[in-house]
């Protein structure tokens, strides 16, 4: 068990009870290839753990290197969207140390990786390096398939899937609609009777986007919250075709304990996770803590770094400007194609 020093005193009790992500604590931090492989394929865990503790692959042996990640070129803002008050300061590029990148398996960075040479391989507004499996990312068609109340009732055709999950109001429906370029597809999940279900949307007849119920709805009775936990945790632990969870975090407000709890649970249970920071177009507001979305995102990452040995993949997004949309699809394509091949 690792107890960490934290700046948020009300998190101390919560965090001190956490274990490190089990898979990561057994691996050297420089074994990025092995860690990424596990993030991609949790069912291969025993095989991955049997790898010799001697690092086979260490692309980031030069610790001083940093990489500058560009944010999207000036976003197109629709005059019909009053919330689209873009903060020009969010357009500063992000600078990351190389060891904070997510490097997919079978991806080699140049041995002498410098910010210039590695630039083109990192997805804009993210820490994700593009690997050889990033292809076939566009959504051509999307259809709602079914709502399930139990994991056992989910589609059984073996297609790979990605689950979207986050607090109520985080922007999950907006993101789902944006990914499939349909205005109201996600409304299906909001119909009475479907909100507490696992909703499957088939994409290009090849893979699924899965909409899970939002958590942390203040008005929900205690009992239904417990049921929700049981139900979604069962899905995460048992669904063999789940390639990765996409955990949505609202970057326009400071980190919430419930989101940190969620990330920690996924880490402890070795569920592969990508963080999607939503609402990154929003200006900082005093009433929301007075911090910019990328500052909130950075704080969130540093808080969850307690649960993970290597930084999980993350992407900054906005459904108002479409920031991150293509990047999410490319990332999903490389996770999916790798998963299919192995
Ligand atoms: P859900 O409850 O997680 O499905 O959230 P919704 O998609 O219904 O969005 C909740 C609210 O956040 C709505 O008012 C959306 O218009 C707003 N919203 C969602 N995504 C964004 C975004 O990227 N930027 C901004 N500014 N607002 C957003």
Automatic annotation (TrEMBL):
Domain EngB-type G, first and last residues per copy: 158-342
SUPFAM superfamilies associated with the record: P-loop containing nucleoside triphosphate hydrolases
Lineage: Eukaryota, Viridiplantae, Streptophyta, Embryophyta, Tracheophyta
UniProt-listed InterPro entries: G_ENGB_dom, GTP-bd, GTP-bd_ribosome_bio_YsxC, P-loop_NTPase
Molecular function (Gene Ontology), one example: metal ion binding
Cofactor: Mg(2+)
UniProt feature coiled coil, ranges: none
Single Gene Ontology BP annotation: cell division
Membrane-spanning residues: none
Family statement drawn from the similarity comment of this UniProt entry: Belongs to the TRAFAC class TrmE-Era-EngA-EngB-Septin-like GTPase superfamily. EngB GTPase family.
Keywords: Cell cycle, Cell division, GTP-binding, Hydrolase, Magnesium, Metal-binding, Nucleotide-binding, Septation, Signal
Protein name per Swiss-Prot or TrEMBL: P-loop containing nucleoside triphosphate hydrolases superfamily protein
Organism whose genome encodes this protein: Rhynchospora pubera
UniProt signal peptide: 1-23
